[in-house]
Amino acid sequence: MDEQRLLAMSDWQLEFARLFAYTTESALLLDQHWWQDLAGQPDDFESHQTQQSRKVSGTFNEARLSVTIDPNCVVWEVQPTPKVGDLPTLGPFREKIDWVAEFLSPWLANSCPPIRRLAFGGKLLQAAATQQQAFRILGVHLPGVKLEPNPNDFILQINRRRDSKVVQSLPLNRVSTWSKMNVVFSMKPGTPFQWPENCYSALELDINTAPEKTAQLTQSSLCVLMGELKDLGVEIAERGDIP
Predict the structure, then answer these.
(1) Calpha distance 240→243 (Å, rounded)
(2) Alpha carbon distance 58, 191 (integer Å)
(3) What is the pLDDT of residue 117?
(4) Residue with the larger pLDDT of the pair 219 and 188
(5) What is the pTM of this model?
(6) Residues 161-170: pLDDT tens digits?
């Protein structure tokens, strides 16, 4: 089982990562250039704005980086660039989630507006040759769940709260959603096809500060708090669902 667990945890790939900063006041009217300050101005830089939101996006470090601002939240998202005939990912989970956290730290430390909540997470995938293999991978991470005989489908969401070690009296939600995911590729419009035995084990992470805690978070705590949220997500991905 130890060998199986080591193999399963090493094969996670990061599909996307997101950082949510819930603002105390709307950030829509701020005169800011957050995206450009972090990533410059690539050729495919795009900016879209409505009365209720603003989104800036472009290619950075071979990924698609975007920041979306609405009256309640600032959302940073890192996604892979499309790949023909394959499910795109950013790369190995541990390496890429550390990179995302490090990349966004200067914004949290120097430019983030006053916020009351912080959330960090993403989606992880492991390719499986068969449905049975996908369930075996999930079973390694979910020792308390009986997956034999293999079900036709599976999804499990669980939240195991912990108290923050860096912000006093702040509960943290540790939401993990485990599933088996089939994949449908479409090579051209109107002609989808599916490989029934080509599927993925999936884990979506949402590690966030408790919504009932509405006091403003101190800016000096934000980087270390994001690091704590990231580390809790890594713990789930590597150790599985441990109460």
Answers:
(1) 10
(2) 29
(3) 98
(4) 219
(5) 0.90
(6) 999 999 999 9
Q: Are strands 115-128 and 192-209 parallel, antiparallel or unpaired?
A: antiparallel
Residue whose C-alpha is closest to residue 14's, from 106, 124, 121: 124
Backbone Cα Rg of the chain: 19
Q: For residue 159, what are the β-bridge partners?
A: 175
Separation of alpha carbons 112 and 222, rounded Å: 9
Tokens for 180, please give them: 């088996």
- Alpha helices in 56-178, H assignment, sequence order: 93-110, 131-141
pLDDT tens per residue across span 56-79: 999 999 999 999 999 999 999 999
Q: What is the mean pLDDT of residues 97-119?
A: 98
Q: Strand ranges (DSSP E) for the chain?
A: 13-23, 46-49, 54-60, 63-69, 73-80, 91-92, 115-128, 155-159, 162-163, 171-186, 192-209
Pure H helices in the chain:
2-10, 34-39, 93-110, 131-141, 222-239
Asked whether 219 and 109 are in contact (CB, 8 A), the reply is: yes
Counted residue by residue, the chain has a size of 243
Residues 64 and 79 sit within 8 Å (Cβ to Cβ) = yes
How many CB atoms neighbour CB 79 within 10 A?
Answer: 19
Question: How many Cα neighbours within 13 Å face the side chain of 131?
Answer: 14
Alpha-helical regions (H) of 174-221: none
Q: What residues contact residue 230 under an 8 Å CB cut-off, 6+ apart?
A: 97, 98, 101, 120, 207
The answer to whether 132 and 205 are in contact (CB under 8 A) is no
* Greater model confidence, 92 or 194: 92
Q: Are the C-beta atoms of residues 224 and 162 closer than 8 Å to each other?
A: no
